[in-house]
Write a structure and sequence with these properties.
Chain A: This is BPL/LPL catalytic domain-containing protein. Chain A: It holds the Pfam family LplA-B_cat. Chain A: InterPro entries: aa-tRNA-synth_II/BPL/LPL, BPL_LPL_catalytic, Lipoate-ligase_2_inactive. The complex is a heterodimer. Chain A has a single domain (2-266), classed as Bira Bifunctional Protein, Domain 2 (BirA Bifunctional Protein, domain 2), CATH 3.30.930. Helices cover 32% and strands 24% of the residues of chain A. Chain A has helices at 2-9, 25-38, 63-66, 69-74, 114-126, 170-173, 191-194, 204-215, 246-266, and strands at 14-21, 43-48, 54-57, 79-81, 89-91, 95-103, 132-133, 139-141, 144-154, 157-165, 220-224, 242-243. By secondary structure, chain B is an alpha+beta fold. Chain B has one domain: RNA polymerase II/Efflux pump adaptor protein, barrel-sandwich hybrid domain (OB fold (Dihydrolipoamide Acetyltransferase, E2P)). Chain B is built from five helices and eleven strands; from the N terminus they run αβββββαβββββααβα. Chain B has helices spanning 2-14, 53-59, 106-109, 113-116, 141-153, and strands at 17-19, 26-28, 32-33, 38-43, 46-51, 62-66, 73-74, 79-85, 88-93, 98-103, 125-129. In chain B, the strands form three sheets. A six-stranded antiparallel beta sheet of chain B has the order 3-4-5-11-10-7. In chain B, a hairpin with a 6-residue loop joins β1 and β2. Classes of the chains: A alpha+beta, B alpha+beta.
Chain lengths: 269, 155
C-alpha cells in the first residue's frame, strides 16, 4: 500500500505546505505576496485563524463605499488593502485561510485566467465538501455563503486565496456596508441571512486535514517549517499589501460626507 | 449569402481586421502582439499599449485598472500595471521598453473600455521607446491569431 501511494505521487508536481495558527493576516498576506512574486515553487499556506479582527479590502476597494468608517475608527479596527482583487471581508480567530500559489504549468491544461483557476481551486474543496458555485464564484451551500476568495495572476504564475468562515461575530459584520457589486444571492439581505458557519458541520482540524488530503491528490506535498528562515537575499521584497492609515480613513469619510451634503443641498426634496 | 460573405470579407479587409475561425476575438493587422496578450502600435519612436480582445474576453468584465505613473519606466516582459476582473488582479506585461509619457486616465472612471474597445478607447499607456528593435521580437497579427488558437485548443 505504501509503495502504491508513493508510486502514485511520482510525477505529481511538488508543493510546499506551510501551516500557521493565529498568524496576523497582514503578515500572512505579505508572505503570500512575496512568495507569489519572488518564488519559483508551488505553495499552499494554511492559517488556522488570525489574531485580532481585521478588515481586508481588495486592491480597488474604496473605504467610503465598503465600510462604516465611523465605527471602524472608533473601535480601531485595522483595515488592510490586499494585492488581490475581489471584495471586503472581516477576518478574526473564526476564519480559516487556505492559499494556493502555483506555477502556470503546475496544473496541466489550466488556462491562466480567473474563471478556470477558480473552477480548478473549487475542485479541491468539492472533492470532499459538496457545495455549489454561484455565478460570481463565492463558496456557498444552498444560498448561504461560507467562504470568500480572490486571486492574482501574473505571467506563468497564479495565486488563489480563500477565507473560510469557521465562525463569525455578528457585531463585526456591522463594520461592512453592502457593496455596489454585490452578487445576486446577497442583494437586500443582512449578513446573518446569507452567511453560514462551518463550525456547525465539522471540526477545524477535519476541515484543514481534508483540504490538505484533497490537495495531495494533485501535488506531492512537502511540509515546510513555518518558522524556517526566509530567503536572506540582499534584495528585500516590498509588498503592495498594506495597512490603511487613520488619516486615509478619516479623509475618505470626510470626502464622502461632503459629497452627501452637497447632494442633499442641491436636492429639490 | 455568397455576396454577404464577400461584403463581410471586404469590410474586414478594409478595417484591417482578421477574424478567428471561431469568430470570437478580433486581431488588428497593423499591430504587434506579445505572448502575454498585450498589443502595441508603433509610430516612430512612440508606442501605444493595451490588452487584446482575446485577453479581455478571457478575463471577463474589467472593474478596475491599476495604471502606472506618467514618467515611470517600463521594461519589455515586466509588469507595469494590472486589471481587476472576476475578483482577480491580472498583471499587464509591457511588450516594449521605454518611458511612460501618457496613461489613459479615462480607465479610472470607465475600466470597462478595456472590454468594449480594447484596441482603441481601451488603450492603457503611451510609451517613448528606448529600444525600437525590441518590437521585432513580437508577433504579427497572423502569428498572434495562430498563437491564440493553439493556446485555446491546448486547454
Amino acid at each position: 500500500m505504501g509503495t502504491f501511494l508513493e508510486a502514485r505521487k511520482v510525477g505529481l508536481p511538488l508543493m510546499n505546505l506551510v501551516r500557521f495558527k493565529g498568524l496576523p493576516i497582514l503578515q500572512q498576506l505579505h508572505l503570500e505576496e512575496e512568495l507569489f512574486r519572488t518564488s519559483k515553487e508551488n505553495w499552499c499556506i494554511v492559517n488556522d485563524g488570525t489574531n485580532d479582527p481585521t478588515i481586508v479590502m481588495g486592491v480597488s476597494g474604496k473605504p467610503a463605499e465598503l465600510l462604516e468608517i465611523k465605527p471602524v475608527l472608533h473601535d480601531e479596527i485595522p483595515v488592510v488593502r490586499r494585492f488581490t482583487g475581489g471584495g471586503t471581508v472581516i477576518v478574526d480567530q473564526g476564519t480559516i485561510f487556505v492559499t494556493f500559489i502555483c506555477n502556470q504549468d503546475a496544473v496541466p491544461g489550466l488556462q491562466p485566467y480567473p474563471r478556470p483557476i477558480m473552477s480548478w481551486s473549487s475542485l479541491i474543496y468539492d472533492q470532499w465538501l459538496r457545495h455549489q458555485l454561484t455565478p460570481v464564484i463565492d463558496y456557498v451551500f444552498g444560498d448561504r455563503k461560507f467562504g470568500g476568495n480572490a486571486q492574482s495572476i501574473t505571467k506563468r504564475r497564479w495565486l488563489h486565496h480563500t477565507s473560510f468562515l469557521w465562525d463569525y461575530e455578528v457585531r463585526n459584520m456591522s463594520y461592512l456596508k453592502l457593496p455596489k457589486r454585490a452578487p445576486e444571492y446577497r442583494l437586500a439581505r443582512q449578513h446573518s441571512e446569507f452567511i453560514w458557519c462551518l463550525k456547525d458541520y465539522l471540526s477545524r482540524l477535519t476541515f484543514i486535514e481534508r483540504t490538505v488530503n484533497a490537495l495531495g491528490t494533485h501535488f506531492s506535498l512537502k511540509s515546510v517549517d513555518s518558522e524556517a528562515n526566509r530567503d536572506s537575499s540582499a534584495v528585500k521584497f516590498v509588498p503592495s499589501t498594506r495597512l490603511l492609515t487613520r488619516q486615509e480613513l478619516e479623509e475618505a469619510m470626510s470626502a464622502a460626507d461632503s459629497k452627501n451634503s452637497l447632494a442633499e443641498s442641491i436636492s429639490p426634496y | 449569402m455568397a455576396s454577404r460573405l464577400m461584403w463581410a470579407s471586404r469590410a474586414a479587409s478594409k478595417l484591417r481586421i482578421s477574424v478567428f475561425n471561431r469568430g470570437f476575438a478580433t486581431v488588428l493587422k497593423d499591430l504587434k502582439y506579445a505572448d502575454s496578450h498585450e498589443w502595441v502600435k508603433v509610430e516612430g519612436h512612440s508606442a501605444t499599449v493595451g490588452i487584446t480582445d482575446h485577453a479581455q474576453d478571457h478575463l471577463g468584465d474589467v472593474v478596475y485598472v491599476e495604471l502606472p505613473e506618467e514618467g515611470s519606466t517600463v521594461t519589455q516582459g515586466n509588469g507595469f500595471g494590472a486589471v481587476e476582473s472576476v475578483k482577480a488582479t491580472s498583471d499587464i506585461i509591457s511588450p516594449v521598453s521605454g518611458k511612460v509619457v501618457k496613461v489613459n486616465q479615462e480607465l479610472s472612471d470607465s475600466p470597462g473600455l478595456v472590454n468594449l474597445s480594447p484596441y482603441e478607447k481601451g488603450w492603457i499607456i503611451k510609451v517613448e521607446l528606448s529600444n525600437s528593435s525590441e518590437v521585432e521580437q513580437l508577433m504579427d497579427s497572423d502569428k498572434y491569431s495562430k498563437f491564440c488558437e493553439e493556446e485555446d485548443a491546448a486547454h
